[in-house]
Design a protein that fits this description.
five-stranded mixed sheet, Nucleotidyltransferase, domain 5, 17 helices, seven-stranded mixed sheet, 22 strands, kinase, alpha/beta
Length: 533
């Protein structure tokens, strides 16, 4: 344990000036402590997994609160180990989490039904009816689609619903008592009016009128959290909130909180992609691209979500339910194999070897195909998924072709959605890669550049994650210069940040096009697999 004299970083922590960011991702809850300039000081995490219960993807309440405490405790332990001091007060705090889904509460704040995550695809009738009614795309995973589907299904709890929020909004409310949400996260609950920065009043009125046909006296706006842009004070840590975070009781209340945000918004911050003509691709359990728009899209597209940055600027989002989970599962299989032959290696080492082998394979993966569909995939019209691996008799199977097929398969559905933005004339100067898959230098970055036929950058913050992104948004609370978020990030956080940029290789571009043609044709096999088992 560290016993050295206090350092400047130790003083930041002991004086209560450090800023905490927490993100509840799909497979990990992470807590990151940073200096007021965003520089990481300590971190901790807790692994968790969604459960498939009664054909619903969910996490239990205990999963949330015990995981939150574990992540905070691990961060405090890391601060003690690295700086010789544990935090007892914070300069600011922010909460981020996976977007969308359904969290419905009664008047007393009790959860009425188990958390229905973004991964559920059972809201087709509601999403279709609302898209027609509102004239904007309402994806299956949006909160309003879940709410309306519960109404259509005459679920007994709907008459008791007093409030709706997201996972980030729920945690934030437990920490502060405030029923608020950042505009980026709110834009995944219900459409936002760019002029007012809150829910579109006309569309709310249309929804309420439709709702009145089935429920009396229910107003959607009364259920939804109040919307706040980045930089606004969203409440303060209460004594109950501090006790919820820190099981030791050492953490004092009083820290200001920034508006709670979704993982898409914090990913944009973490990659400095919040200004028009910037975009990012986040790869985790899901994979999604965010393109900050210069002007609205010409048409409504079922494959494209219209959301916002944490400041409220319009963003076209291509969201695919299935990302790197299947690739990670194969890394686990290969780790077991090398251990079985007496050469044990860590998961990260195995992952690096796998990805490196992919660069030596044919650009089109040599006739091998892979579908990473652990769950349904709205972009390709599938309500459920079945992970598949396919190859033709004349294909060449090797470690390289197998892994390249898995990586290209993870990017394929995203590429189908991005093709729509290309047709709409959306231009991006560069796409920033974000997520752990980019830690192996030059592999996923190069293959993504080929898949999107676009320059792809990866910065030093690529693997920091959304917990760091929400910590940066909490730091932005203290800014009194009046600078907009994009300018503040440029000058205060990313001014000296290094990044590598990869241009698309023509051979990779052509190889991916060939792969994607076979991938689209092979979707018939994926559909048959869902029907068969």
């Amino acid at each position: 344990m560290t016993t050295a004299a206090a350092s400047p970083d130790a003083d930041v922590i002991s004086q209560g000036r450090a800023v905490l960011g927490i993100e509840l991702g799909s497979t990990r809850i992470k807590a990151v402590l940073v200096a007021p300039d965003g520089r990481p000081l300590a971190s901790g995490g807790h692994a968790w997994e969604n459960r498939f219960v009664d054909r619903t993807w969910t996490y239990t309440e205990d999963d949330v609160w015990s995981g939150l405490r574990e992540a905070y405790g691990a961060m405090a332990d890391d601060a003690q180990e690295r700086h010789g001091v544990r935090p007892t007060a914070l300069g600011a705090l922010g909460v981020s989490a996976m977007m969308h889904g359904y969290l419905a509460f009664d008047e007393a704040g009790a959860l009425l039904v188990p958390f229905r995550t973004w991964r559920n695809t059972t809201t087709g009738p509601a999403a279709g009816e609302l898209t027609e009614l509102l004239g904007v795309n309402i994806p299956l995973r949006w909160s309003v689609a879940h709410h309306y589907q519960a109404v259509l299904d005459d679920e007994p709890h709907v008459a008791q619903v007093a409030s709706l929020t997201t996972l980030a909004g729920w945690v934030h409310r437990r920490l502060t008592g405030e029923h608020v949400l950042g505009v980026g996260d709110a834009s995944g609950m219900f459409p936002i009016d760019a002029a007012t920065g809150t829910y579109d009043a006309d569309l709310v009125a249309r929804y309420d009128a439709r709702l009145a046909e089935r429920l009396d006296g229910v107003s959607l706006e009364a259920l939804l959290p109040r919307v706040l842009p980045a930089g606004r004070d969203a409440g303060h840590l209460t004594a109950d909130g501090a006790a919820l975070l820190d099981a030791t009781g050492a953490l004092s209340p009083g820290a200001p909180l920034c508006p709670p945000e979704g993982d898409a918004g914090t990913g944009m911050v973490a990659t400095n992609a919040v200004a028009p003509r910037t975009g990012n691709v986040s790869v985790g359990t899901s994979i999604f691209a965010m393109a900050v728009l210069e002007q609205p899209l010409a048409r409504v597209h079922e494959e494209i979500d219209m959301v916002t940055t944490p400041s409220g600027d319009p963003v076209a989002m291509v969201h695919c339910n299935n990302g790197a989970s299947e690739l990670d599962a194969w890394a686990g299989v290969f780790a077991e194999l090398v251990e079985a032959v007496g050469s044990p290696a860590g998961r990260d080492e195995v992952f690096r070897a796998m990805l490196s082998a992919a660069l030596d394979a044919e650009a089109d993966a040599g006739g091998v195909l892979a579908y990473n569909y652990l769950s349904g995939e709205p972009v390709t019209g599938l309500d459920e998924g079945r992970p598949l691996y396919l190859r033709t008799p004349d294909s060449r199977l090797s470690l390289g072709t197998f892994v390249r097929a898995q990586v290209l398969g993870a990017f394929a559905t995203l590429a189908l959605g991005m093709r729509i933005l290309d047709d709409e004339g959306v231009d991006l100067d560069v796409v920033v890669g974000h997520g752990g898959i980019f830690r192996t230098a030059g592999v996923a970055q190069r293959l993504l550049a080929g898949a999107l036929d676009t320059r792809v950058a990866v910065g030093e913050s690529a693997a920091e994650g959304g917990a760091w992104g929400i910590a940066v948004l909490a730091c932005y609370l203290a800014d009194d210069s009046g600078a907009d978020l994009a300018s503040w990030l440029d000058t205060h956080v990313f001014a000296d940040a290094a990044s590598s940029v990869v241009e698309p290789d023509p051979a990779d571009v052509e190889g991916f096009r060939s792969y994607l043609t076979r991938y689209e044709a092979g979707l018939a096999v994926e559909r048959a697999a869902v029907d068969a088992c």
